[in-house]
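For reproducibility, we list the full input for the beta-D-fucopyranose complex.
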Amino acid sequence: MQFPDGFAWGTATASYQIEGALDEGGRAPSIWDTFSHTPGAIETGDTGDVADDHYHRYAEDVELMADLGVGWYRFSLAWPRLIPHGTGAINEQGLDFYSRLIDALLDKGIQPWVTLYHWDLPQALQDQGGWPERDTAQRFADYAVAVHERLHDRVKHWTTLNEPWVSAFLGHAVGVHAPGIKDGEAALRSAHHLMLGHGLAIDAMRAQAGADEQFGVTLNLHPADPATDDPADVDAARRVDGLANRIFLDPLLRGGYPRDVLEDVSAITDASYIQDGDEAQIAVQPDFVGINYYFRTPVRKGEKARSELSPWPGQGDVETVSRGLPQTEMGWEIDPSGLYDIITRVAREYPGPDLYVTENGAAFADVKGDDGQVHDPQRIEYLDAHFRAAHRAIEDGAPLRGYFVWSLMDNFEWAFGFTKRFGLIHVDYETLERTPKDSARWFAETTRANGRP
Ligand code: FCB
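The corresponding predicted structure, in tokenized form, follows.
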């Protein structure tokens, strides 16, 4: 299994999951601070207050990353560090932190890949309505262009949003993520304003960018398969595909929302939040699309009413189905063929942009052994199988240019707190000591050989 020359190997993280240092360097609260401190919101009561303390330990983390032999690091900027209250001037202390991180990376020959929004909206903007409000899209573009102006001398890859589906739908339809709202129409408005913000931000950044810069977005995509060939199940799968994949891919790469999706949500919204010109704005051509893949979603039509709470707004009658496959600690079924299917589908049905796997990885119940090491053969097996699926997609012609493992190190796994360990590097949350797992050494071999024997 040999990957093409220049294939970008990397690891990924996100600001709130690793940084800690919440009230340092002029940072203001984000919706995730508020949410994680809300009793009952996080299963374990954990918060990101300290997390991996990456804010103070970034230099050590960059050293560890260099040992992985990776050429790339995908991380997110915390908007509440950079423009703490959502609007106004850049907070120089916040900028300085990222500037030092970027220099440390470049010093090790690691290219920084920035995500502008990985879910930590400044609380001040939430107080003004958050993503359901149209104005937030413009605030996002203003933030993007201000930060880009100061960092694009060294950062050449810019991702606007990480997984707008998750911010919009888990945050606003079922409320298991910040800001914890349960309102299908607010979720749909949020999805639209996120993507509008994406389009506005790309245009504004490109206007001041050099020719060597690339802009795009990361979507969490997954095949939605009908559990049986019963037409009701087939239709449930169509609806989930619509509200998980096509609701983002079509405006982005085909110029507008799919008609069937708008019909599927017509009971909960008249979609008047989509204004003239918005679809053209969202359709500004991206250089790349990042795909985050973790699982397939087999579904069937169940007995509940469509109006019940659902992560696919307005589709409360749809149920996910287990196929009895082995699962990760997240309860996600392991199915590498889903990665092959989604990459080749995007390549076929939405040709144009380069593709990257911007996240893939697995949580297992890792423990440090008596030998002081973390042996995680399951993660190695998981990654090997997914790398092979991606490789097969490349052989079949998909323009896949790189692969980022989630995650560099164990971190705050959102609603699950610190219980789910996704890292190549183990973090002891008492001492904050970092220990590379067996998978880290295996991954280093893979990146150095650009494949596996
Ligand atoms: C993705 C998120 C990432 C991480 C992984 C496990 O949805 O983008 O932050 O939590 O899931």
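The domain at 8-449 is CATH 3.20.20.80 (TIM Barrel). The chain has a mean pLDDT of 98. Both points were considered when choosing residues for closer inspection.
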